[in-house]
Recover the amino acids of this structure.
């Protein structure tokens, strides 16, 4: 099977997750400068459990906002369109993919814990370096490994073989998949998010999160996600198979030098933030 055949197969899977309609609508609305707070609020309010979740999120320590935000239009005024959009996207995607574990070696909850950790760390790096929008980096970080989830759910046989090789041959997942698949999980994630019509910066950050590329639409976002992934892998259990800090690209290291050199000082605080984000996103309402 070559890459083209692989993607054709992916296209033909009837139950491949489509984006929840609320995400499509909210995404479209935010690309339109004429969107009013009223319209956006109306759309989100059609999904009451989403409203509850968004209000819990914006009132959590995660956004560090002091006075209580009572409704969606208030949230949009205080936090901005982009932040609310990203909150809707994050909540919806986790909801869509929060199924049962398909194969034994790969736990969906562990997957999301890693993704949330990379999301929070990407956001932190963006905040500190001021290179990119922290909220956009959060969503890119959250989705960076989504290709693995696609593989585990729709190419289970191949996925298990890759994992077997990770364990037996002591390889990273990224190295091992080269021996079994015509495309890697980063390219699969890029393909899917492109199909979902996500912004080019997000698609590129996902596609190149293991091998960053200068000629992407938003190089800084790519660097933030790549660096965050390496940091998280270095500070958490490496057996999950993505390798450690040593895989950090020299260009990324250079542009985040201060953060990289002081990582052991700040990461414990970020780890606390990761824990509360996991509580928020992964616990049932
Ligand atoms: Fe990855
Ligand atoms: Fe990762």
């Amino acid at each position: 099977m070559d890459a083209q055949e692989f993607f054709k197969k992916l296209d033909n899977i009837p139950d491949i997750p489509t984006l929840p309609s609320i995400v499509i609508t909210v995404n479209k609305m935010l690309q339109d400068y004429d969107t009013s707070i009223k319209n956006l609020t109306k759309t989100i309010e059609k999904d009451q459990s989403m409203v509850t979740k968004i209000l819990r999120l914006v009132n959590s320590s995660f956004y560090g906002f002091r006075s209580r935000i009572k409704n969606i239009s208030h949230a949009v005024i205080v936090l901005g369109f982009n932040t609310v959009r990203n909150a809707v996207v994050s909540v919806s995607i986790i909801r869509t993919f929060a199924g049962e574990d398909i194969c034994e070696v790969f736990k969906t909850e562990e997957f999301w814990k890693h993704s949330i950790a990379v999301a929070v760390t990407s956001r932190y790096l963006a905040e500190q370096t001021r290179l990119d929008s922290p909220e956009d980096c959060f969503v890119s970080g959250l989705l960076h490994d989504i290709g693995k989830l696609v593989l585990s759910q729709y190419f289970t046989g191949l996925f298990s073989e890759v994992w077997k090789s990770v364990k037996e041959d002591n390889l990273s997942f990224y190295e091992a998949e080269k021996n079994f698949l015509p495309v890697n999980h980063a390219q699969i994630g890029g393909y899917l998010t492109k199909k979902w019509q996500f912004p080019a910066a997000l698609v590129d950050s996902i596609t190149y999160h293991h091998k960053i590329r200068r000629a992407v639409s938003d190089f800084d976002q790519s660097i933030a996600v790549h660096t965050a992934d390496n940091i998280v892998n270095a500070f958490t259990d490496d057996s999950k198979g993505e390798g450690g800090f040593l895989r950090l690209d020299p260009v990324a290291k250079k542009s985040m030098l201060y953060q990289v050199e002081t990582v052991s000082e700040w990461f414990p605080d970020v780890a606390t933030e990761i824990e509360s984000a996991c509580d928020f996103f992964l616990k049932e309402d």
